Amino acid sequence: MAVGTQPGSGLVRGQLDTDKNGYILAGEDTRCSLPLVYAAGDIRQKPLKQIVCAASDGAVAASMAVRDLEAAEAAH
Predict the structure, then answer these.
(1) What's the number of CA atoms in the CB half-sphere (13 Å) around residue 48?
(2) Rounded alpha-carbon distances, angstroms, from residue 25 to 19, 44, 52, 53, 71
(3) What CA–CA distance (Å, rounded) separates 34 from 59?
(4) Up-side HSE of residue 9: CA atoms within 13 Å toward CB?
């Protein structure tokens, strides 16, 4: 089974930056080209497609979302 060999990014195509294969471009902090949008797991362009990496991405994305939302709330 080859999970992650074709990204399921059709929903965000044209809204987020992707590579030529459709994988979402996001930094190691999982932040995408739009504020408060994060990509985790095999939909994100990265060298390893392993479940342990996807789980780590999820934890990072959740942490970044909390941090960004708290910063946004403090700014208002």
Answers:
(1) 9
(2) 7, 6, 19, 16, 23
(3) 19
(4) 27
What's the Cα-to-Cα distance from 12 to each of 37, 45, 56, 74, rounded to whole Å? Answer: 11, 14, 22, 29
- Kindly report, residue by residue over 19-73, the tens digit of the pLDDT: 999 999 999 999 999 999 999 998 999 888 888 999 999 999 999 999 999 999 9
By C-alpha distance, which of 69, 62, 13, 15 is closest to 41? 62
How far, CA to CA in Å, does 7 sit from each of 20, 25, 39, 61, 64? 11, 12, 12, 18, 22
Position 31: which residue type?
Answer: R
Query: Residue 25 has which token pair?
Result: 């471009």
